[in-house]
Design brief:
It is built from four helices and six strands; from the N terminus they run E-H-E-H-E-E-E-H-E-H.
Length: 161
Amino acid sequence: MGCPMAKKYWLMKCELSSCSFEELKTDRPNSTGKWRGVRNYQARNSIRDDFKKGDLVLFYQSNCDEPGVPGIAEVVKAGYPDPSAFDPDHTYYDEKSDPDNPTWYSVDIKWKRKFKSLVSLKDMKARKGLKDMKVVQRFQRLSVQPVTKKEFDTICKMGEK
């Protein structure tokens, strides 16, 4: 009998106008969001190859007055072909994407827990222990980023203050 795979940790950015963390909880069926429309190859590779059911996600709200992490979500469906790529009426349609050899992938996440307070990007940048996190570094714009367990735990502790 093999050892179970270690859980991975992620930070996923979502523009506030697309879906807030609260909206994920209250307005999505079963508090589950279908992460569609990722059109960056590096992010796609992570979704396709690395995301597993049970992985934990820091839900990062961006493009708002105070960007940051209001809480945690959980991966409930690992990477699968992004159906929006095949729908000509969808904003994220890609005429070159082939259902038999898909270019783009989606992942489903479920609302898990809201922090007592938002962990702002400003606070993350001020924390020495988070200096290696991609989100605090200049020119790191990927919407999907791996996070170490230590970084994940630090953000969780910050959110409970």
